[in-house]
Amino acid sequence: MDSKRHGTVDEQLVRDEAVVALPPERESFNGHKPTVMDPEQFHAASEKILAAINKVIDGKAEAAKLALTVLLAQGHLLVEDVPGVGKTLLAKTLARTIDCRVSRIQFTPDLLPSDVTGVSIYNQSSRQFEFRMGAVFANIVIGDEINRASAKTQSALLECMEEHQVTVDGHSYQLGEPFMVVATQNPIEMEGTYPLPEAQRDRFMARISMGYPDKLSEIEMLETHQAVSPLAKVTPVVTSADVAAMIATVQQVYVSQSVKEYTVALGRATRDSARLRLGASPRSLLQLLRAAKATAALDGRDFVLPDDVISVAESVLAHRIILDRKAASSGDTPQSIIRAILASLPVSQDAGAERRGA
Question: What gap in Å lies between CA 211 and CA 204, rounded to an integer?
Fold first, then answer.
């Protein structure tokens, strides 16, 4: 072992607990390059996942689809709403549909960064520091009520979410692939909450609000959720290797030059808006395009249309922009400004129509 390391780790234990893999940009999964699914296989796998989620979450098909979109786009999801509307249930259901390692972190004010990332412990018998993995070493990490923890603990996730690795005592440990954080948070007006800093909000690909179910869905919930939670009946419908193949398939979705230009125009429009103090970051545009590619794949296409960008723009960009005081006092919301910008942007007639090899 390298003498310059500050600690040691049982490599076999890491492989057992959270599959060691290369970062996503190296296009590797457990040492192997994932195969690309054909359209029929991709459709079948995605329908299995969505059907399993919709059996548990009544009347929230759009939220289920967006959660799957974020997973396939290699992003992270932030679910924000009042208590009791199914935020954690959505996260748990998505995790259980996949045969992979799942961990859950209940964020509280006394939670420490080492509880999330892990800690080096001195082993007296070997006289070396050994790394004990934290809860983040999993394929899907559920962060429940993330804004109830201190800013220091929240920041422990920054490196994990962006670089898929953990650095402790000067040594970096790769996280497993696929890797996704599904975090829930309560509105900041509630007691005991700490607002997420802009840098951490920008790490989340999309933010969704569950909202209350409609009348029929709520009646259905009262009839079916009384004796036992439907979550108990959820079993994996795909493997982590299937998800890796689906992600590889999404990466192959074609994006025309005109769609790229439209995406950049949208981002620049948020930065030039007089009603915004902070516009969309370059990272947000990259994630917007990734989400659009996943949306196109879920709709059965191997190329992106401007409609794909428009359909996810509000969820991907709204939590990243900041209103100026005048806009906030006049009743504007980030969502309404994104919709106004989308309505004002011209769309090329041939945008998205170009195909690879055409």
Answer: 19
| Cβ 208 vs Cβ 76: under 8 Å | no
Q: What is the pTM of this model?
A: 0.82
CA distance 320 to 241: 32
**Alpha helix ranges (H) inside 107-239:** 113-117, 151-154, 157-163, 198-201, 215-224
Helix axes of 61-72 and 282-298: crossing angle, nearest 10 degrees: 110
Segment (H or E) for 132: strand 128-133
Element holding 263 (H helix, E strand): helix 257-272
Pairwise CA distance, residues 351 & 38, whole Å: 25
220-255: burial string, b at 16+ Cβ within 10 Å, e else = ebeeeeeeeebeeebebbbebbbbbbbbbbbbebbb
254's tokens: 């074609």
In the chain (358 residues long), the average pLDDT of successive 10-residue segments reads 37 37 43 76 94 85 92 92 76 88 89 90 86 90 87 86 87 87 78 75 88 77 71 86 92 94 94 89 93 95 94 93 86 91 82 53
CA within 13 Å, CB half, 233: 13
Q: Which structure tokens are listed for 85?
A: 């509307």
